[in-house]
């Protein structure tokens, strides 16, 4: 029975890989001949041989940068509060359940919410169907993912590290800032990048709030660009595929290659951040650890330890503000 199950598993994996490989080969065969520097430096056009992805490419970068700047502090802050400060009661449990459920809500629902709130109600602030409205909508979309990933990264930090900080007299916020956050940061960034990988391929939410399918200008590189019209790569690819001319389908294949390259790059960064550093060193002598701690507090030096591949900096300036006397 075990061998039968193993064989069925390998067959299922092989079928999935064959289908994905066939699709990838088909896209590469169609799109690579069209993938030239002019394709990334030209605006969309009604003539397929002159059409490019400059404005959708820049629009996607704009959306991702603004979304990251909005979602990272909100998601990390919410996760730290829920994991480190919030008490375990019915309200906290209700919030956690809702966050988990929101991670599975279809993107079109977030698009409808963004259309009503950010495009219509907040039009004096966002400018309507603009980059800022799109970034705020995608921020709502990926916030649950970032919160869940950040909480898992915080849970992975050994509790003994927290207790060691408390034993030295550090406050809860000092322990989180100087010890917990540096160790959990790679996991936080990994979750952030994976969430952005989902957001960069979203189409339904941005179409709902009014992203354009044809735009022949670039947003200005200033705060005024936040209130500019925009296009993104998934919508441009969808627009080309919907055209009857075969030449536009070739453009769509080239656009898919560009989008896949961005996704592969982002996920590669996430894998590198998640991989433990090779020079991780953990003190093995607890007595030596506490002796060095007291000595550094009295002499004014800083303690630099490494745990889980990230440097922990417990500076005397922070610890001298506590009531610990060594």
Care to give the gist of this entry?
This protein has helices at 2-31, 37-41, 54-85, 90-102, 107-121, 123-126, 131-155, 159-167, 172-200, 204-209, 233-241, 246-274, 286-299, 316-319; strands spanning 303-307, 310-314. With 326 residues, it is mostly helical. The protein folds into 2 domains: 35-274, MetI-like fold; 286-319, no CATH class.
Descriptive notes:
The chain has helices spanning 2-31, 37-41, 54-85, 90-102, 107-121, 123-126, 131-155, 159-167, 172-200, 204-209, 233-241, 246-274, 286-299, 316-319, and strands at 303-307, 310-314. The chain is mainly alpha-helical. The protein has 2 domains: 35-274, MetI-like (MetI-like fold); 286-319, no CATH class. A two-stranded antiparallel sheet has the order 1-2. Helix 1 packs across helix 12 (246-274), helix 3 crosses helix 11 and helix 7 crosses helix 9. The longest helix is centred in the N-terminal third of the chain and has 32 residues, at 54-85. The protein is globular and about 70 Å long. Residues 277-326 have low confidence and may be disordered.
CATH class of the largest domain: Mainly Alpha
CATH superfamily of the largest domain: MetI-like
Count of helix runs? 14
Query: Which strand-content bin applies to the residues?
Result: under 5%
From the alpha carbons, calculate the radius of gyration and give it in angstroms: 25 Å
Count of distinct strands? 2
- Percent range for helical residues? 55-70%
Q: Name the structural class.
A: mainly alpha
Would you tell me the overall average pLDDT? Answer: 81
Shape: globular
Taken in chain order, the helices and strands follow as: HHHHHHHHHHHHHEEH
């Amino acid at each position: 029975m075990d061998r039968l199950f193993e064989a069925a598993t390998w067959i299922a994996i092989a079928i999935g890989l064959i289908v994905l490989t066939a699709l990838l080969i088909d896209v590469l065969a169609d799109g690579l001949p069209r993938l030239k520097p002019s394709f990334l430096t030209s605006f969309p056009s009604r003539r397929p041989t002159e059409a490019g992805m400059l404005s959708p490419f820049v629009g996607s970068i704009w959306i991702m940068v603004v979304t990251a700047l909005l979602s990272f502090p909100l998601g990390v802050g919410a996760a730290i509060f829920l994991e480190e400060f919030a008490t375990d009661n019915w309200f906290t449990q209700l919030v956690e359940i809702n966050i988990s459920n929101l991670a599975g809500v279809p993107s079109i629902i977030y698009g409808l919410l963004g259309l009503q709130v950010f495009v219509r109600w907040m039009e004096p602030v966002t400018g309507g169907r603009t980059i800022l409205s799109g970034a705020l909508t995608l921020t709502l979309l990926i916030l649950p993912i970032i919160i869940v990933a950040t909480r898992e990264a915080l849970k992975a930090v050994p509790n003994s590290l927290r207790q060691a900080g408390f034993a030295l007299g550090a406050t809860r916020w000092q322990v989180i800032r100087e010890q917990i956050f540096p160790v959990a940061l790679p996991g936080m960034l990994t979750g952030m990048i994976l969430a952005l990988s989902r957001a960069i391929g979203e189409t339904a939410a941005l179409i709902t709030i009014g992203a354009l399918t044809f735009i022949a200008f670039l947003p200005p590189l200033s705060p005024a660009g936040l209130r500019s019209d925009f296009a993104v790569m998934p919508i441009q690819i969808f627009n080309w595929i919907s055209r009857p001319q075969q030449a536009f389908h070739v453009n769509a294949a080239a656009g898919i290659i560009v989008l896949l390259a961005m996704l592969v790059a982002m996920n590669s960064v996430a894998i590198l951040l998640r991989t433990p550093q090779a020079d991780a060193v953990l003190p093995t002598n607890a007595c030596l650890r506490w002796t060095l701690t007291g000595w550094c507090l009295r002499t004014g030096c800083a303690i630099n330890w490494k745990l889980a591949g990230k440097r922990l900096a417990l500076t005397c300036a922070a610890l001298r503000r506590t009531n610990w006397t060594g």
